[in-house]
Write a structure and sequence with these properties.
Layout lengths: L18 E6 L2 E6 L4 H7 L25 E2 L18 E3 L3 H16 L15 H8 L26 E3 L9 H10 L4 E4 L6 E4 L15 H5 L5 E3 H6 L4 E6 L8 E7 L2 E7 L12 H5 L14 E2 L8 E2 L2 H19 L4 E5 L5 H15 L4 E3 L6 H10 L17 E5 L3 H4 L1 H12 L3 E5 L8 E2 L2 E2 L2 E3 L6 H14 L5 H7 L2 H12 L5 H8 L3 H13 L3 E5 L1 H4 L4 H14 L10 E3 L6 H6 L6 E2 L3 E2 L3 H11 L11 H10 L4 E5 L3 H4 L3 H9 L3 E6 L11 E4 L8 E4 L4 E5 L11 H12 L8 H11 L8 H7 L1 E3 L43 E6 L24 E4 L1 H6 L7 E5 L4 E8 L7 E5 L27 E7 L5 H22 L2
Parallel strand pairs: 1-4, 14-15, 14-25, 16-17, 16-21, 17-20, 21-22, 25-26, 26-27, 31-35, 32-34
Antiparallel strand pairs: 1-2, 3-4, 5-8, 6-7, 9-10, 10-11, 12-13, 12-27, 18-19, 23-24, 28-29, 29-30, 31-36, 32-35, 33-34, 33-36
The structure holds iron/sulfur cluster (3 copies) and FE2/S2 (inorganic) cluster.
Length: 948
């Protein structure tokens, strides 16, 4: 294995369809108009020396190393800033050019510290490379000249250092921060020889605007910006391409290794979801894989009050199988079930549901998508016929109006947010419907045209009033509707939304959004060109989550914004493989490929292939499993990679349900909160230790490749296979590629997917079959999957969760960039530097009324429970609304969330809880007890880890 070296073409690719033919060093080449001479030369294999140019950012022309000669033109222009022209004749190597380039390099080297042998970038430094490329053998000015200002090394960021003495002021970092990331955290301070790169207001990196995406480090040609891991371990020597295991963007990375040690993660330019960019989590937050809390040996205990007993894999598997068999013999075959993970691979998820359906003999399988995007599946399937988003991420580059509802892309989906921000800086308009002033409302060089700060729980009223304006003002795309949708249903629906009770003026009281803002936003979306909707959990996690998804789908059909580039309805999926876990049949009513368990032909096919009779009745959803456990009819559960105790609502109810079961099996990396109620702990493997595939928010199936051996001994799919065999349902896979072959054989939308194809194409978006052998970037191009698009009437029904004198504020929850979900991974990385604890955002008026100061401990109380955390006073939330993240188990904000859920899918209503906030002295009693319990659990685990 060797290090994968991607070609740096020096300047970005031109998207022009017009081509230009020129001659470079005697050879003819044809390239798109707008291409630089530097890039054209590189495309034919000629690397013109360069320092300030890199193909991730626009050219700048400052270093003067890339000089060329052009026939008929005077001087020696920079090839990075000179566009190609028809008939142009270029020379890249003449005596004059060689002399000039050497002179430039002499100047750079004369003021560069010559500590190459001990420099962390030795062997991986473009300055070194260029000195070699121009044949520099001596420096006439000596090496003792004046130096650029050197304010000293800034090591404040936990992941990288900034060493200004090595800076050549090429500005690649500044441009990467602006153009690729869109944060504008860096500037060149000072002038001329005194120029120096400076984060924000000449602050240390850690205190600056920097979000640690790493784009500047990747752009830096020297060791000025360098990963601390490279400084510690040395430069990498081989790499493997794999997929990030954090969010639904699905960034592709090169895992760069030295031996079996991971040195760094470098975003892969060929990655079609991320195009060479990353966020802090994917690039840096992988340290959890070797954290001391990781459990690597199976453990069992008869009672949850007993200490854990470390056992062999064989004993753990036999014990689990015999327990499940005992329970089924005593309480019936439906008394057990399982939960699949949206963090595991498609193959692992497929195997889990296969074990439950064919091995356990029931459909009691559910997934954590239940608590996030199940309404997306329901809503989009009902209206369009497919349970997935309609576009690829590239599509945003063609959008003219972007409507974001209930999503916070810069925190939740940062790499896609950077691409979106680029399009917004280039002129697209922006509408945001969110109770909070999320970053995108106003961020460098971007300001939302409309921010609709709706009250939590009123999405349906708001989206229906947007439709009201479009219908009543005659802005609908009638031609599209007549051609593509059911016209009769449309007419009924149009009459419904046109009713004056849906006007912005009528709904203003409920939504809190001024009517004129709603009218302006509706007009802009309907008439502003390509309109694209992006939404998140702020849409789905409501009692009317499915209704809002359908209201959004209606809006896109109404305006003809579906079925081409630049438009569409795009759920921003939370976890890395939440799309995949749904695709793979993780819901109790659906087989892989979203086919209902009552479809006879489908079930017969699976029965024949799997060799077991299958149940045609839907099984239990997660909340039903917990209720059934409390009723005494559900006794055993196999939970793979999901911390239901922390991520599901009403923690007390969940813990009581788990405590009522006789065999709880948790397969995970750490002793997660749910494991406190487990009888068997099966140690899981990280994405670095396994082969498989993930499917991202654009339906893109991508390879996960093993870069190191699993430290627990098995990949997760192997553990499921062991258990299945022990249960008496044989499985004999040698490699996940065989599982994918089975998925393809049994799932029409995956029919043409194979590891060979994924290795060849990099990735494919489903449907991928005979009709679309290379996948489907944009859905519903020639018609909806269900035939005619279906307009669904979306009556607004206020949630039963109401504010009142006792609970006058509305709590809504969300994520922060540096942390991930319940924090099991990110809390075990240096990311904790940015978010040590969950904080409660509260508006200054509400804080003042309660005598709360910034940083004070406050008690957050609802009808369900209470917790304490510190307050953060901010105008990001409106008066009457409070907000917090749910990353830390010591806060467990789900103790206050309610049991209300989406009417169609049971997705919990996390986004609306009536609460009261009052000053407090510190953590609640239960939090202190809980902390003690966690410490005790860790103490039990520690000797086992130490014994390794
Ligand atoms: S890490 Fe990212 S955000 Fe921070 S300065 Fe570099 S490019 Fe900008
Ligand atoms: S820090 Fe690196 S990329 Fe930035 S100006 Fe200096 S040498 Fe160039
Ligand atoms: S945006 Fe998501 S997929 Fe990409 S690096 Fe960050 S966490 Fe990973
Ligand atoms: S690479 Fe062209 S001027 Fe620096």
């Amino acid at each position: 294995m060797s290090l994968i070296q991607e070609i740096d073409y020096g300047t970005p690719e031109s998207k022009s369809e017009k081509t230009v033919t020129l001659t470079i060093d005697g050879a003819e080449i044809t390239v798109p108009e707008g291409t630089s001479v530097m890039r054209a030369a590189m495309e034919m294999g000629t690397q013109i020396p360069k320092l300030c140019a890199t193909d991730m950012v626009a050219s700048f022309g400052s270093c003067r190393l890339c000089l060329i000669e052009i026939e008929g033109r005077n001087g020696t222009p920079a090839s990075c800033t000179t566009p190609v022209a028809d008939g142009m004749v270029v020379k890249t190597q003449t005596d004059r050019l060689k002399r000039l380039r050497k002179g430039v390099m002499e100047l750079y080297i004369s003021e560069h510290p010559l500590d190459c042998l001990t420099c962390s970038a030795n062997g991986d430094c473009e300055l070194q490379d260029m000195a070699g490329a121009v044949g520099l053998r001596d420096v006439r000015y000596g090496y003792d000249g004046a130096r650029h200002p050197n304010p000293g090394i800034d090591a404040s960021n936990p992941y990288f250092t900034y060493e200004p003495s090595k800076c050549i002021v090429c500005s690649r970092c500044v441009r990467a921060c602006e153009e690729v990331q869109g944060t504008f955290a860096l500037t060149i301070a000072g002038r001329g020889f005194n120029s120096v790169v400076s984060p924000s207001m000449e602050q240390p990196f850690i205190d600056s605007e920097c979000v640690s995406c790493g784009a500047c480090i990747q752009a830096c040609p020297t060791a000025t910006l360098n990963e601390k891991s490279v400084i510690d371990i040395g430069t990498p020597e081989h790499s493997v391409v794999t997929t990030c295991a954090y969010c639904g963007v699905g960034c592709t990375f090169k895992a760069e290794m030295r031996g079996d040690e991971l040195v760094r993660m470098i975003p892969y330019k060929d990655g079609k979801a991320n195009r060479g960019h990353s966020c802090i989590k994917g690039r840096f937050a992988y340290g959890y894989a070797h954290h001391k809390d990781r459990i690597t040996k199976p453990m069992i205990r008869e009672k949850i009050t007993d200490p854990w007993r470390e056992v062999s894999w064989e004993e753990a598997i036999q014990y689990t199988a015999s327990e499940f068999k005992r329970i089924q013999a005593k309480y019936g075959k439906d008394s057990v079930g399982g939960i699949t993970s949206s963090r595991c691979t498609n193959e692992e998820t497929f195997l889990m549901q296969k074990l439950i359906r064919a091995g356990f003999g029931n459909n009691n399988v559910d997934t954590c998508a239940r608590v996030c995007h199940s309404p997306t599946g329901y809503g989009l399937k009902t209206t369009y016929g497919t349970s997935a988003g309609t576009q690829d991420f590239d599509s945003v580059e063609q959008s003219d109006v972007i409507l974001i509802i209930g999503a916070n892309p810069t925190d939740g989906h940062p790499v896609f947010a950077s691409r979106m921000k680029k399009r917004l800086r280039d002129g697209a308009k922006l509408i945001i419907a969110d109770p909070r002033r999320i970053d995108l409302v106003r961020t460098p060089h971007i300001e939302a045209d409309y921010h609709l700060p709706l009250k939590p729980g009123t999405n349906v009223a708001l989206v229906t009033s947007l439709a009201h304006v479009i219908v009543t003002e005659g802005l609908a795309d009638e031609q599209f509707i007549r051609e593509r949708c059911d016209w009769d249903e449309f007419q009924d629906w149009a009459a419904f939304v046109a009713d004056p009770r849906h006007s912005p003026e009528a709904t203003e009281k409920a939504t809190g959004v001024p009517a004129e803002l709603v009218r302006g936003a509706a007009r802009l979306y309907a008439t502003g060109g390509n309109g694209a909707i992006y939404y998140g959990l702020g849409v789905t996690e409501h009692s009317q989550g499915s209704t809002t998804v359908m209201a959004i789908a209606n809006l896109a059909m109404l305006t003809g914004n579906i079925g081409r580039e630049g438009v569409g309805v795009n759920p921003l999926r939370g976890q890395n493989n939440v799309q995949g876990s749904c695709d793979m049949g993780s819901f109790p009513h659906e087989m892989p490929g979203y086919r209902h368990v009552s479809e006879t032909a489908t079930m017969e096919m699976f029965e024949q292939f799997w060799g077991r009779p299958l149940d045609s009745e839907p099984g239990l959803r997660i909340p039903n499993m917990i209720d059934a456990a409390l009723d005494g009819s559900f006794k055993g559960i196999y939970i793979q990679g999901e911390d239901i105790l922390q991520s599901d609502p009403n923690t007390q109810h969940m813990s009581a349900g788990l405590a009522a079961m006789e065999c709880v099996v948790v397969q995970d990396l750490f002793l997660i909160e749910t494991a406190h109620y487990a009888h068997v702990f099966l140690p899981g493997s990280t994405f670095l230790e396994k082969n498989g595939t993930f499917t991202n928010a654009e339906r893109r199936i991508q390879r996960v490749r093993k870069v190191m051996a699993p430290i627990n001994g098995y990949e997760d799919w192997e553990i499921t296979q062991l258990l299945s065999n022990a249960m008496g349902y044989p499985m004999h896979y040698d490699h996940p590629s065989q599982i994918m072959d089975e998925i393809a054989r049994l799932t029409p939308t995956f029919a043409d997917v194979s590891y060979e194809k994924l290795d060849e194409l990099g990735s494919v978006q489903w449907p991928c079959n005979a009709a679309a052998p290379e996948g489907t970037p944009i859905m519903h191009m020639d018609g909806f999957v269900r035939g005619k698009g279906k307009f669904v009437i979306t009556e607004y029904v206020a949630t039963d969760e109401k504010t009142g004198p006792r609970f006058p504020l509305l709590l809504t929850t969300g994520r922060i960039l540096s942390q991930y979900n319940v924090g099991a991974q990110t809390r075990r990385t240096a990311n904790v530097v940015w978010h040590e604890e969950d904080r409660l955002e509260i508006h200054p008026h509400d804080a003042e009324n309660r005598g709360v100061r910034d940083g004070d401990w406050v008690k957050l109380q609802s009808r369900t429970g209470e917790t304490s955390l510190r307050a953060l006073i901010t105008e990001r939330v409106a008066p009457g609304v409070v907000y917090t993240t749910f990353h830390h188990p010591s806060t467990q904000v789900n103790v206050v969330t309610t049991e209300f859920s989406d009417w169609a899918t049971n997705c919990p209503e996390y986004k609306v809880t009536a609460v009261q906030v009052a000053p407090s002295n510190g953590p609640s009693e239960w939090q202190e007890e809980y902390e003690e319990l966690s410490q005790a659990a860790r103490r039990i685990a520690e000797p086992l880890v130490a014994a390794e």
